[in-house]
Design a protein that fits this description.
InterPro entries: YtkA-like_dom. It holds the Pfam family YtkA. About 20% of the residues lie in helices and about 45% in strands. It is of the alpha+beta class and about 150 residues long. It has 2 domains: about 1-30; about 40-145, Sandwich (Immunoglobulin-like).
Length: about 150
């Protein structure tokens, strides 16, 4: 066997060893956590427990729909008279919602109707809710996939 042939075989051996090593590293590495798709969560500062639900079935792309946001204290009491602000968008596309949703009605028991929500394309969306009530101002972000 010539020395050039040995070098070629050795190079292939090193490449195979490197590929094997990298395969083990990438296949055993923990997966990056994805977004939290919970529809109930505590607000960022922990002042409120919020939950969201579509008012009439799951939302469909391109249609206006309403959501019901339930706001409770940490102890579980309904929050009445809160000011709710709504924002959001598609974090992977860096654009906001195509509409300007707003809280339109208090439904009782800490529940508020949010109208004017529209998801214009399939993918990962966020609804960002701001709550201002006697306990203070706080916010929560809900992740949705359409």
């Amino acid at each position: 066997m010539t020395s050039a042939w040995r070098m070629v075989v050795g190079a292939f051996g090193l490449v195979a060893l490197a590929i094997g090593f990298l395969s083990v590293v990438f296949l055993t590495a923990p997966a990056a956590p994805g977004p939290d798709f919970a529809r109930s969560k505590n607000s960022a500062k922990g002042l409120y427990a919020l939950s969201i639900a579509p008012e009439a079935g799951e939302p469909r792309q391109g249609e206006l729909h309403a959501w019901v946001v339930t706001v409770k204290t940490r102890q579980g009491a309904p929050v009445e008279g809160a000011a709710i602000s709504v924002g959001g968008g598609m974090p992977e596309h860096a654009h906001g919602l195509p509409t300007s949703p707003e809280a339109t009605a208090y439904l009782g028991d800490g529940r508020y109707r949010i109208e004017g929500v529209k998801f214009s394309m399939p993918g990962w969306w966020q609804l960002k809710l701001g709550v201002s009530a006697p306990a203070g101002a706080d916010e929560a972000t809900f992740n949705l996939v359409l």
